[in-house]
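[job 0412] stage=complex_fold ligand=guanosine-5'-diphosphate status=START
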Amino acid sequence: MATERTFSIIKPDATRRNLTGAINKLIEESGLRIVAQKRMKLTRAQAEEFYAIHRERPFFNDLVGFMVSGPVVVQVLEGANAVGHYRDVMGATNPANADAGTIRKEFAESIEANSVHGSDSPENAAIEIPFFFKPEEIVG
Ligand code: GDP
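[job 0412] stage=complex_fold status=DONE, emitting structure tokens
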């Protein structure tokens, strides 16, 4: 399978509980490589633009408020079938439905505060990665 890149965010509920390393351990043990990473505080404008696809959903304002409530860690992950593989490592959006051993089953607090974001398609990964990283900041 072709080597691929996906975009990941460790969300504020996870950074608040000091879980960056624990989540990175699951990512790396799954075989994905963290080829770019930085900790930052999203602005409201960044969060609104990043989640613009959800603008009409009833939870949009709550989601944006949550994403700016604390630091996040944005990442680029690389590996075979990285987009689909990371979705498997993350688990279902609602942690109640997530499989054992997934990041969301292990760590998520709720359907909103669900610890991680991962691109849902290679097309969206190609949009999300340059939203946060310059090419020279990604070192494979
Ligand atoms: P994902 O691709 O698994 O992250 O899920 P979605 O793209 O459907 O939703 C984006 C993010 O919005 C999720 O990761 C959650 O943080 C949040 N979210 C999704 N569904 C709900 C919901 O029903 N209520 C609230 N409050 N947040 C939600």
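The helical segments are 12-16, 20-29, 44-50, 60-67, 82-90, 103-107, 122-132.
[job 0412] exit 0
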